[in-house]
Amino acid sequence: MSSEPQQKFEYKDIDAEGLEILDVISSAAKFNRWLYQIVSPFCNGKILEIGSGVGNISDFFISDKKDIYLSDIRENYRSILSDKFKLDTNHVLDIDIAHTDFDKTYASLLSSFNSVFALNVVEHIKDDDLAIKNMLSLLKPGGQMTILVPAYQALYNDIDLSLEHFKRYNRTSLSKLMSKHAPIKKSFYFNATGILAWWISGRILKHKTIPAGEMRLYNTFVPVFKFIDKIVLKKMGLSVVCVIQKP
């Protein structure tokens, strides 16, 4: 599937497929730490994570005693986060970055954070331009926003469909989207070896979710995959990352 799919997804209060995959990934400690190491250099000061899910990456920020606020649009995820990290409601926020009246609804949060990041979130939002605009409004002047999304539309498969991804991106398309709102500070790919794993799992084996066994195996070889990313100079990968800085 090389062209962008014209999907119509309906919001679900309980995201069963997403929760299943997040639970599978939660056991992949090496992979999660690798992802944390990729995004954490761009996250300083008062930090907001958009779409925290079950806290797979949040865990590392909290362990390192970062000043982080978590958020998710779904109540069940917010409940999991509060229980897991023993956080009060002020640190687990209900934020809908696709809200059409965002500035009014979240007036108390505007220009509040030094860093905002969203990992595998924007691809779930049809109006991704609005999502970027809304997230940027949460930053203080000079603050940084880090976005990670799935890469290469040609890799779109049944797992993407099950997770309700509107599309996948590349470095050019993500940079074009984000540069409309603020200057780009950094742009690169992540997890080159994951391209082959995603293609085999979704296209060859026709999986609709990520099997736990495959994730465990992948997690085992993360040190090798990190080395491969260095070899390819982050010029290709299963995900693409872009960092912008608010003027």
Structural descriptors:
single chain, 247 residues, 11 helices, Rossmann fold, 7-stranded mixed beta sheet, alpha/beta
What does this structure look like?
The chain is of the alpha/beta class. It has a single domain (16-245), classed as 3-Layer(aba) Sandwich (Rossmann fold), CATH 3.40.50.150. Helix content is 39%, strand content 18%. It contains eleven helices and seven strands. The protein has helices at residues 16-26, 29-39, 58-63, 75-85, 102-105, 128-137, 158-162, 171-179, 194-204, 212-220, 222-231, and strands at residues 46-50, 67-71, 92-93, 113-119, 139-150, 184-190, 239-245. It has a seven-stranded mixed sheet. Strand 1, helix 3 (58-63) and strand 2 form a beta-alpha-beta unit. The longest helix is centred in the first third of the chain and has 11 residues, at 16-26. The protein starts with 15 loop residues before the first helix and ends with a strand. The mean pLDDT is 94.
